[in-house]
Write a structure and sequence with these properties.
about 100 residues, 4-stranded mixed β-sheet, Double Stranded RNA Binding Domain, about 40% helix, RHF/RaiA, alpha+beta, about 35% strand
Length: about 100
């Protein structure tokens, strides 16, 4: 699974790439559902803004986090997207069970 990373108004540090690789492993379970994964990072005057967008076969999941620390913002974005993805997967499984 490939994550498209876009940084606005700053350069992405190398340490962030290792954090993203570590967090990405949790999404491998849902790899058959995910079509596209985009992470947009921007810097405001006081905060880093991390926006995650996951395109699925059956919809789109979004998460946006503001935090003074870049690593924390990215971490929270991945956590929010993972929670949404788990809920979405549960709904799909439940729907398939009811059909049978």
């Amino acid at each position: 699974m490939k994550i498209n990373i876009t940084a606005r108004h700053f350069e992405v540090p190398e340490s962030l790439f290792s954090l993203i690789e570590k967090k990405k492993k949790k999404f491998e379970r849902f790899e058959n559902l995910i079509l596209d994964f985009t992470l947009a990072l921007s810097k405001d005057s006081l905060y880093f803004i991390s926006e995650g967008k996951v395109k699925l076969k059956t919809g789109i999941l979004n998460a946006k986090v503001q935090n003074p620390e870049l690593g924390v913002a990215v971490n929270e974005t991945f956590d929010k997207l993972l929670i949404q993805l788990k809920k979405h997967h549960e709904k799909l499984v439940e729907k398939n069970v009811r059909r049978k």
